[in-house]
Amino acid sequence: MMRTPTRPPLPNYLGKPLALWRGCVQKLKSVMPKGLYARALLIVILPMVILQTVVTYVFLERHWQLVTHQLSTALVQDIAAIIDIHNSYPQDKNDETLTRIAQQRMNIDIEFIPKGPLPPPLPKPFFSIVDSALSKEISRQINKPFWLDTVGRSNLIEIRVLLDNSILRVVAYRSAAYAANSYIFLLWMLGTSFVLIVVAMAFLRNQIKPIVQLMNAAEAFGMGREADFRPQGAREIRRAGYAFIEMKRRIERNIEQRTAMLTGVSHDLRTILTRFKLSLALMGTAPEAEDMQKDIDEMQRMLEAYLAFARGDSGEAAAKIDMQDFLAGLRSEAERHGAEIAVSLQGDPQVIVRPAAFKRCLSNLIGNALVHAKKVQVEAFRDQRFLTVNVDDNGPGIPPERREDVFRPFFRLDPSRNQDQGGTGLGLAIARDIARSHGGDITLSDSPLGGLRATVRVPV
């Protein structure tokens, strides 16, 4: 026997990083948007945000740093010149002249204070372009102990330089050492990004709209409803729309052909059965004739069931009905056959279904319950999206492992619960086929009454 080669396990140093990577990918998938519009918008916005971030970083690191360095160099040059003049002419009168010249010509305030220890260093700010540029230039041009404050007052910078016999205190505007028009760049960047995002949202919404229309048309066709759909949008979306319309026409044509064929078969077989009945009526009341009459009635009933299953609910249009009146009609029909059922409805009674087909669906479920139970109740719940109908009984029920099997055509359980007893075994199959043709389904579960619960859930 040939053995399938097995993949060798990954080394431990590769297995753990790979498992971590897969976990991160799965977590990322769980938080990613699920809708096409949101995903497309993310594809447009994410590169835009990354581009703006990169441009901002490059601008800050290149342009702002260069401009700030040049301004800081000029400011420190002025301070160095003041220190040189003060050291060369250390008279008090000259200090007053320097203060006046610095204020009028250099637009900075200076003050010579008595010599003492400098304040403790302040923590470096997170955005430290000005702080680093000034510190570097003061160390290079003046080369004396200094203290720098670029955080305390937002629009001012304070510098203290320790001289031989005093301390020079300098207060300058931040604009003297920093490109103060940076907010214009930020506003321009944010403004253009906002405009681009709005344009992208409007454009994507216009592109996604034809896809949503195609989806709604497909859902309406699946539930047997007519939808006014015209292909629009991009070339690929229009091609998909035309393909859907052509597929819809082929399906409708096949359904019409099948319906015509079944109608012809039904007419021919009914004609033969009518001849049999007429022949038996002419034979009189012989015991053999009674047995043959029962066989013919059974054959006619089986024929109707087969044709109903094969025909489905084709040809019937969906319509709005009042579910309260609909359930009352089912109850009246059951009472005419000598049975009693309890019905109730919660929510808006207006629903859109194929009336005759949906009645056949619920009638099959109720009839199946009445065969095997003494108490049957029907509860309907209507919310914004779905109509849910529960048919409960107190019969023997169906084992959980056999509940899907009973929906197969011609399938029969043991005699303890033989659905469609004396029939063809098509009642539940027809009911599920009708529910699925409405875009819903039928499920079986345990009933609060002790028997079986059949739940019909269809979109409305």
From TrEMBL:
<keyword id="KW-0812">Transmembrane</keyword>
<dbReference type="InterPro" id="IPR003660">
    <property type="entry name" value="HAMP_dom"/>
</dbReference>
<keyword id="KW-1003">Cell membrane</keyword>
<feature type="domain" description="Histidine kinase">
    <location>
        <begin position="264"/>
        <end position="460"/>
    </location>
</feature>
<dbReference type="GO" id="GO:0000155">
    <property type="term" value="F:phosphorelay sensor kinase activity"/>
</dbReference>
<keyword id="KW-0597">Phosphoprotein</keyword>
<dbReference type="InterPro" id="IPR036097">
    <property type="entry name" value="HisK_dim/P_sf"/>
</dbReference>
<dbReference type="InterPro" id="IPR005467">
    <property type="entry name" value="His_kinase_dom"/>
</dbReference>
<dbReference type="InterPro" id="IPR036890">
    <property type="entry name" value="HATPase_C_sf"/>
</dbReference>
<keyword id="KW-0067">ATP-binding</keyword>
<dbReference type="Pfam" id="PF02518">
    <property type="entry name" value="HATPase_c"/>
</dbReference>
<dbReference type="GO" id="GO:0005524">
    <property type="term" value="F:ATP binding"/>
</dbReference>
<keyword id="KW-1133">Transmembrane helix</keyword>
<keyword id="KW-0547">Nucleotide-binding</keyword>
<feature type="transmembrane region" description="Helical">
    <location>
        <begin position="36"/>
        <end position="60"/>
    </location>
</feature>
<dbReference type="InterPro" id="IPR003661">
    <property type="entry name" value="HisK_dim/P_dom"/>
</dbReference>
<keyword id="KW-0997">Cell inner membrane</keyword>
<keyword id="KW-0902">Two-component regulatory system</keyword>
<dbReference type="GO" id="GO:0005886">
    <property type="term" value="C:plasma membrane"/>
</dbReference>
<feature type="domain" description="HAMP">
    <location>
        <begin position="205"/>
        <end position="256"/>
    </location>
</feature>
<keyword id="KW-0808">Transferase</keyword>
<dbReference type="Pfam" id="PF00512">
    <property type="entry name" value="HisKA"/>
</dbReference>
<dbReference type="InterPro" id="IPR050980">
    <property type="entry name" value="2C_sensor_his_kinase"/>
</dbReference>
<protein>
    <recommendedName>
        <fullName>histidine kinase</fullName>
        <ecNumber>2.7.13.3</ecNumber>
    </recommendedName>
</protein>
<keyword id="KW-0418">Kinase</keyword>
<dbReference type="InterPro" id="IPR003594">
    <property type="entry name" value="HATPase_dom"/>
</dbReference>
<keyword id="KW-0472">Membrane</keyword>
<feature type="transmembrane region" description="Helical">
    <location>
        <begin position="183"/>
        <end position="204"/>
    </location>
</feature>
<dbReference type="InterPro" id="IPR004358">
    <property type="entry name" value="Sig_transdc_His_kin-like_C"/>
</dbReference>
